[in-house]
Automatic annotation (TrEMBL):
Keywords: Cell membrane, Electron transport, Heme, Iron, Membrane, Metal-binding, Transmembrane, Transmembrane helix, Transport. It is a multi-pass membrane protein. One of its GO terms (cellular component) is cytochrome complex. It comes from the Bacteria. Its main location: membrane. The chain crosses the membrane at residues 15-36, 57-78, 98-121, 128-148, 192-211, 223-240, 323-347, 359-380, 413-432. It is found in: Cell inner membrane; Cell membrane. The keyword Ribosomal protein does not apply. GO terms for molecular function: electron transfer activity; heme binding; metal ion binding; oxidoreductase activity, acting on diphenols and related substances as donors, oxygen as acceptor. This is Cytochrome ubiquinol oxidase subunit I.
């Protein structure tokens, strides 16, 4: 079935599929953890039951999304050994410790406090429970910190030395490796993306329930909070994205060339190509709709500034222009659509019609999954735009793969596709069912199973007989 395919291509497809599927959940759970922290903090400050109800409503959804994110992420580490063993061997001395730090800091922190956050509301004090929620939110941030540091080093590798056996070895300072040139921009841009993703999911759920019942106080509050986040963070995200683009132009110019569709250099100012069809064979963008000199204005802050094109890059170092060109436009287009929804909600708020405009609510409902599409499109732009390198400028992707035959990689890819859609599809459907339930006063939140822990050691004694033959009463459940 896979004999005629390329093992390298299949390995890349497998990693792209699993990492894209995986990041759907962290892109939601990172922002949702912070939202839960805000809700519980507002409840402690105001003592309003509404905030506690919303916390309990969303904590159930968080628990499932977090669990699916952890499980889908475990697969990623195995692929480093199965499909990318050469990369693991060569880059392991640098990226291995960084990924270990994520486990030692983020995972341990989350594991220590997640149970208290989910099940300890009535078992510990309010402040201690809030501290646990804060620690879980902090853990999600730390996890993003280390993973983005690893990925950013692969994009802008610094602070290392080359060993005699061709390995990347840490240099004199780990600080240079962790805080590599692209890391601050990538961290800010990604975290804002997770907050916007969560905001539009929350806003979409609130809009769904407002369309059914405009008087629902819980739906009103979640929709209002989500729209404040949208109108505040969306413009900041556009600004952060622009700064990230300037950093990319400095360190990965061919990625920006592919994003802009600049096959040719422009010595007197480059146009901004809004839409078109990249034609890599003819080295042009067909049917281009462009704004003269606008690209130079954005990237160089000078409409007449020269911009180099892909004609200055060897053909074997060019990234796939068509994929990068369109994924970038999808990401940017969704970003501006988010800003539009935020401004629309601001107008509705000023006119005291935030909960009365069904058109706004329908638009917010349609935009509910937009954050997921945007983050996946952003990662495609980042990763495909780095090609043909896995460690930019130093190690090609073709040289990083394991020596496997196509059938071996293809079989595992097929298994991943079937299992992921079955397991995580079912989990996603359950999350949607929870979101479809009307938020109300007296939400129960996450709770343990009623049967208690499973006993795997020893035998639970059954009813005993009294000396007189009468059966004794069963031991009280709480005393076992």
């Amino acid at each position: 079935m896979f004999d005629g395919l390329d093992a390298l291509l299949l390995a890349r497809i497998q990693f792209a599929f699993t990492v894209s599927f995986h990041f759907i959940f962290p892109s939601f759970s990172i922002g949702l953890a912070s939202y839960l922290m805000v809700l519980e903090g507002l409840w402690l400050k105001t003592s309003k039951q509404l905030y506690l109800d919303l916390f309990k409503y969303w904590v159930k959804i968080f628990a499932i999304a977090f669990a699916m994110g952890v499980v889908s992420g475990i697969v990623m580490s195995y692929q480093f050994g199965t499909n990318w063993s050469v990369f693991s061997d060569k880059a392991g001395p640098v990226i291995g410790p960084l990924m270990a730090y994520e486990v030692l800091t983020a995972f341990f922190l989350e594991a220590g406090f997640l149970g208290v956050m989910l099940f300890g509301m009535n078992k510990v004090g309010k402040r201690l429970h809030f501290a646990a929620t804060c620690m879980v939110a902090l853990g999600t941030f730390i996890s993003a910190f280390w993973i983005l540091s690893v990925n950013s080093w692969m994009q802008t590798p610094v602070g290392h030395v080359m060993g005699a056996n061709g390995q990347f070895l840490p240099g004199d300072s780990w600080f240079d490796i962790v805080f590599n040139p692209s890391f601050p921009y990538r961290l800010v841009h990604t975290l804002m993306a997770t907050y916007l993703t969560t905001a539009f999911v929350v806003g979409g759920v609130g809009a769904w329930h407002l369309l059914k019942d405009r008087s629902n106080a819980h739906a009103r509050k979640m929709f209002s909070m989500a729209m404040w986040m949208a109108v505040t963070v969306a413009p900041l995200q556009i600004f952060a994205g622009d700064m990230h683009g300037l950093n990319t132009l400095e360190h990965q110019p061919q990625k920006v060339m592919a994003m802009e569709g600049h096959y040719d250099s422009h010595p007197n100012g480059a146009p901004l190509i809004l839409f078109g069809i990249p034609n890599s064979e003819e080295k042009r963008v067909d049917y281009a709709i462009e704004i003269p000199k606008a690209s130079s204005l954005i990237l160089k802050h000078d409409p007449n500034a020269p911009l180099a094109g892909l004609d200055t890059i060897p053909d074997d170092e060019e990234p796939p222009v068509g994929i990068v060109f369109w994924s970038f436009r999808i990401m940017v287009g969704i970003g501006f659509a988010m800003l539009g929804i935020g401004l629309w909600s601001l107008l509705a708020r000023f006119r005291n019609r935030l909960y009365e405009w069904p058109g706004l609510h329908r638009a917010a409902l349609i935009m509910a999954p937009s954050g997921f599409v945007a983050v996946i499109a952003g990662w495609i732009t980042t990763e495909v735009g780095r090609q043909p390198y896995v460690v930019y400028g130093l190690m090609r992707t073709a040289d990083a793969a394991s020596p496997l035959d196509a059938p071996a990689v293809g079989a595992s890819l097929l298994a991943f596709v079937l299992v992921y859609f079955a397991v995580f599809g079912a989990g996603t459907m359950y999350i949607l069912r929870l979101m479809g339930k009307r938020p109300h006063t007296g939400e129960l939140g996450a709770k343990r199973g009623d049967t208690g822990p499973i006993r795997t050691a020893g035998i639970t004694p059954g009813p005993t007989q009294n000396p007189g033959g009468a059966e004794a009463l069963p031991t009280d459940k709480e005393d076992v």
